[in-house]
Write a sequence for this structure.
């Protein structure tokens, strides 16, 4: 009686089962996979965050498919602060970036249509696409003196059913930003094939380089949807506040906005207290970003210090984001390696295959891990190689 699309294999994989057993047995764990910023020891301005949630204006209901104008203006202000011009009229508030993806897939795709996604990248996309009956087709990122998009393979992957290309900017877990020349190339491919760029910019603010990468939000060179939200920017995933921006050529944009408006009006999903709090939550991003960047830098320095003392493992170059990718000997599958590290060293890491790396030999560590844990965990990991 259920839809085929929900016919998932929900049995835990071997690593999740081993982790659950490790935890259930109460064994000590050095968890190098943490991604929930509210559990990483960052300091939040508790009273500022809670105060903006008690705005008396929340007692009345003023539905707007795009979301409250004050909140959308604050989001436009975030881009203005980055010198990117975005109109509040082109913004839709959503409860999460994941929900924004569902709006985009529903706007662009009929069942079975295709969307290209980078590989390696974040594993969330498979479920998001499947739930919307969208087929994902992977295009490779290549590592050669830093990560690059394989544009040849990307173009070869386009079929008459392709509706969009997802670019995660910077990508999770590789930490690669699209450079101006790559943005121009994406624009020319996507406008030639009449497909949309879907830019996921949840980690955009977390760059380690001096030059701030441009956002896709003000892109006019091809149909573009830009997705972001406060779960990463302000470290507030529990507030469920995100957005979707329609960009690109004027005529396409107007058509996209009209269609999105119907979808958004059908759900009106973001609650009033959170919408009213968005300007205040956005203010929190400065202090949060400073803490994250300083932790990421310190963790990277410690990782590099330990890596310099051995010859078996190395770290791939990264430009931003919250993850480091380690190149390790591919003497067994990444999953076997991760299970062994857990069993023998009490260290939890993500195997590369979790992110669809093209081969074994990669482990992913979270750089927002508290510093002492990252230092101890890395030391145990490297000593077992
Ligand atoms: C690249 C990327 N996009 C989207 C998300 C989900 O964001 P949200 O909490 O807004 O749904 C994540 C979460 O880790 C992510 O890594």
């Amino acid at each position: 009686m259920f839809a085929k699309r929900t016919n998932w294999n929900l049995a835990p994989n071997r690593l999740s089962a081993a982790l659950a057993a490790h935890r259930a047995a109460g064994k000590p764990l050095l968890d190098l996979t943490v991604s929930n910023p509210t559990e990483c020891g960052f300091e939040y301005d508790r009273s500022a965050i809670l105060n903006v949630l008690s705005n008396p204006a929340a007692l009345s209901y003023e539905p707007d498919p795009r979301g409250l104008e004050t909140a959308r203006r604050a989001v436009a202000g975030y881009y203005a602060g980055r010198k990117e011009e975005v109109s509040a009229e082109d913004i839709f508030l959503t409860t999460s970036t994941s929900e924004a993806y569902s709006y985009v897939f529903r706007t662009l795709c009929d069942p079975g249509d295709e969307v290209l996604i980078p590989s390696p990248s974040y594993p969330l996309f498979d479920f998001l696409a499947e739930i919307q009956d969208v087929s994902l087709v992977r295009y490779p990122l290549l590592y050669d003196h830093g990560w690059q998009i394989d544009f040849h393979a990307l173009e070869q992957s386009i079929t008459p059913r392709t509706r969009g290309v997802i670019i995660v900017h910077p990508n999770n877990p590789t930490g690669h930003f699209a450079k101006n020349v790559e943005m121009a190339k994406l624009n020319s491919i996507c406008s030639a094939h009449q497909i949309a760029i879907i830019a996921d910019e949840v980690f955009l603010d977390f760059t380690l380089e001096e030059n701030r990468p441009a956002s896709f939000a003000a892109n006019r060179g091809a149909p573009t949807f830009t997705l972001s939200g406060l779960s990463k920017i302000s470290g507030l995933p529990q507030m469920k506040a995100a957005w979707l921006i329609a960009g690109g050529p004027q005529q396409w944009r107007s058509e996209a906005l009209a269609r999105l408006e119907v979808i958004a009006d059908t759900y009106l999903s973001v609650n009033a207290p959170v919408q009213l709090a968005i300007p205040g939550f956005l203010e929190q991003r400065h202090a949060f970003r400073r803490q994250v960047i300083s932790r990421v830098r310190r963790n990277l320095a410690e990782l590099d210090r330990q890596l310099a003392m051995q010859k078996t493992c190395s770290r791939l170059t990264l430009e931003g984001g919250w993850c480091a990718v380690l190149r390790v000997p591919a003497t067994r599958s990444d999953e076997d390696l991760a299970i062994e590290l857990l069993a023998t060293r009490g260290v939890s890491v993500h195997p590369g295959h979790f992110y669809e790396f093209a081969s074994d030999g990669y482990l992913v560590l979270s750089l927002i891990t508290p510093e002492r844990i990252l230092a101890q965990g890395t030391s145990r990991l490297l000593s077992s190689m």
User: Anything to note?
Assistant: The chain has 13 helices and 14 strands.
